Structure formats: structure tokens, C-alpha cells
DNA sequence: AGTGGCTCCTGGCGGC
DNA sequence: TGCCGCCAGGAGCCAC
């Protein structure tokens, strides 16, 4: 599940290879990957030089001369670069392929086909990302911002953390891990979080995301970087997908509940509900 | 407006 | 051994 750390891992890898190359051609094997046709995408993108790579939340942004391409990996998206390792054919063809001159091919693989590609002029970018919450590592995401985002809300704390309009980049894995680190119960009403707890949560979000980036992401399911390498953060998870296993801090069995349709993992002892919840 | 439920998609896995 | 049905989840959409 590519979240901010996984997309950042992809961005850093590509940033060492793509800038300066010309996107010479592209082929779309699965038309559902974009609302734009292969011909439209080629018209907009082909022949342009790559200027750089950015990330916004879980979106990967490829800056080209006078044009922007945006890719969302969603659940199972993989970006593979042929110079970084042999791209071995697997059962399913890539959803699209970009060819660079001189040099490598970029394959976008995506088993569950939720990933999406967009292309537009730079002037359209602000509208594209309008309504998206601040970057966790940006200046706007302060403790005060977090407190205001939680204040008065009855929705589960975890649901607010994962709401991309409130905060960009946090998904299911890092929400569970950040809440564990902050010792906060995922089902606490967001508005019940006090000032000291918000301070802990703010630090926990940043520390958890940074640990994910430092370990090249979590390869829980299919995530690999553009060289086909797995991340290592899955080996350090405290609660995510550890239901029934002992908490690494206190030994209590990790519990699993469903919060807004998402598997949610927590330690009932380290993350007490403070009597507000019958759990 | 805030909240929650549904949908997309398919490989993998549990159950019988 | 084989097959059916269910599950995972980011984000958009819809209903209340």
C-alpha cells in the first residue's frame, strides 16, 4: 500500500536517473489508467525533457518542460526502471510504458488496476491538488494545525488522520503505527484528543513517516522501488497486521478492529480508550 | 457540513 | 485436490 514513505522512496530513486532525459515515447496497454487516451498523453508528454520529480501526499509528480505528469500508485502500483534492474515479464503486462532517450524504459505495473495517471499544464496543478491537506513535513503542519483539524470532530481519530483533505500522505499502515507511537486509541473521537495528546500525535506522525522513508518503505504486499527492491519497514511494524501477536512494548496481544472499513490494529494496553469506549 | 457506506479490482487464501 | 466466496484498501461518489 504505497503511502507517503513509499511514494517518496520511488521519487528519490527516479530523481537520480530521470532528470535531463527526454520522454521520447509512451505506450498505454491499459486504457483505464488515465482519463486521457494514449494519443492525448503522447501529444502532451512525448518529446519533453524531464526537469525533476516531486511528491504531493501520495501523488508522484514528474515535471517535464511546460507539462506535468502525475501518477498515483493506489494499492499495488509499481514503477520499474529498466536501467536499475531487469524488468522480468510477469503474467500481466504493464499498464503503461515510457521510453526515455537516451536510455531506459519506465514500466508501470499495477495488479489491482487502481492506479491513475494524469497530464496537464503547470498552471492546472493548483486546481488539481486543491482541497488536499498540508504536507506532513511542510511548515503548515504544526501542532496547532493538527489540534484545529481534530477539534470538535466525532469521527474516529484514525479516520481523520487518513483524510487526505486534513493531512496528505498518511494511509492505513502509517495511521496505525503513528497512533501506536502516540499511545492513542484509533477509535477515540478525534475531538477528544487533548493538547498534550495532540503534541504526542504530531511528533508520532512525523517520526513514523520518517522511519518509513529511512527504511525505503513497507513492502507488505507488492511494494518495490524502481529497482525492484523491497523496503524494510514492514519488519519494524509495531501493530499493523500483527493481530494476536504480542505488543513489542508490553506483551499484550495486538487487537484488530474495523474503522471506517479499514483493518485497524492497536495495543489495548498501550493505547487505552480511557473508558470512553466499550472495547 | 460532517459522517459513513459503497464501489472499483484481482490475487490469495480459508473453508468445505 | 478443487472450487467457491470473501478479503484487502485509496479515493471518489452518494446518501443521510
Quick overview of this protein structure:
This protein has 279 residues and is of the alpha+beta class.
What would you say this structure looks like, in words?
The chain is an alpha+beta fold. The protein folds into two domains: 4-128, MutM-like, N-terminal (N-terminal domain of MutM-like DNA repair proteins, Alpha-Beta Barrel), CATH 3.20.190; 143-266, Helicase, Ruva Protein, domain 3 (Orthogonal Bundle). The chain contains seven helices and ten strands. It has helices spanning 4-15, 38-45, 125-128, 143-150, 157-162, 172-181, 195-214, and strands spanning 22-28, 48-56, 59-64, 67-72, 77-81, 96-101, 105-110, 116-120, 255-259, 262-266. The strands form two sheets. An eight-stranded antiparallel beta sheet has the order 5-7-6-1-2-3-4-8. Strand 2 and strand 3 form a beta hairpin. Helix 1 (4-15) runs parallel beside helix 7 (195-214) and helix 6 (172-181) packs across helix 7. The two termini are 28 Å apart. The model is unreliable at 275-279 (pLDDT under 50). The structure holds a DNA duplex (16 and 16 nucleotides).
